[in-house]
Amino acid sequence: MSNDENIYRQILKAIVEHQLPPGARLPEDRLSEAFGVSRTGIRKVLQRLALEHFVVIEKNKGAQVNHPSKAEALEVLDSRILIEPQLIPAVLSHWNSAQSQHFRTMAIEEKRAEESNQLADSIQLTARFHYELATLSGNKVLASFIEQLCYRSSLILAAYGTRGSVGCDCGEHSELLDLLDQGNADKAQNWMSHHLKHIKSSLILESKSEENIDFQQLFSR
């Protein structure tokens, strides 16, 4: 893995796990110092993240973690509600006992994170569950789109979500797995649609304050 790729993954992970909250400024000099690389290298990584909507770069203001608007938050969830249930029949065509066990392991990890009040971990694991399920559909284009929507959903949950946005309040993923094991496409589609609509309805569309970030500590090696 190249150094640029490693830095990209570390910053992306920090954003998705909400260690870098929406709106947090990303000064090139402090990131350069934290990673021990040039500002040019940091700039390349930030530009890549900006192309993927995780970072916003403004002239004379520098980079900051994207703070999705209320309209964007609703559009992202609406897109997921439109697409993910429709992938269920294709997912079922690739479903088997090994896949069932794989996703049940993920569901258990989610539950442990939720019970341990590790909200950031829970949100990340939930995103992984959804985009891996989409990947199983075999539609690479839509799976890639869902992956990006899931990452953007993590930002949205960091900005507007509550504890009711993840976990059992929205329906546990094990319920969906039971339906997939039964081969019940209609009920699985309905479950997915209800699940995503509940997440959307749980959002509190108000901004949260920015935190002071210690980049040296966050990215210490």
UniProtKB/TrEMBL annotation:
<dbReference type="Pfam" id="PF00392">
    <property type="entry name" value="GntR"/>
</dbReference>
<keyword id="KW-0805">Transcription regulation</keyword>
<keyword id="KW-0804">Transcription</keyword>
<dbReference type="InterPro" id="IPR036388">
    <property type="entry name" value="WH-like_DNA-bd_sf"/>
</dbReference>
<dbReference type="InterPro" id="IPR008920">
    <property type="entry name" value="TF_FadR/GntR_C"/>
</dbReference>
<protein>
    <submittedName>
        <fullName>GntR family transcriptional regulator</fullName>
    </submittedName>
</protein>
<dbReference type="InterPro" id="IPR011711">
    <property type="entry name" value="GntR_C"/>
</dbReference>
<keyword id="KW-0238">DNA-binding</keyword>
<dbReference type="Pfam" id="PF07729">
    <property type="entry name" value="FCD"/>
</dbReference>
<feature type="domain" description="HTH gntR-type">
    <location>
        <begin position="1"/>
        <end position="68"/>
    </location>
</feature>
<dbReference type="InterPro" id="IPR000524">
    <property type="entry name" value="Tscrpt_reg_HTH_GntR"/>
</dbReference>
<dbReference type="InterPro" id="IPR036390">
    <property type="entry name" value="WH_DNA-bd_sf"/>
</dbReference>
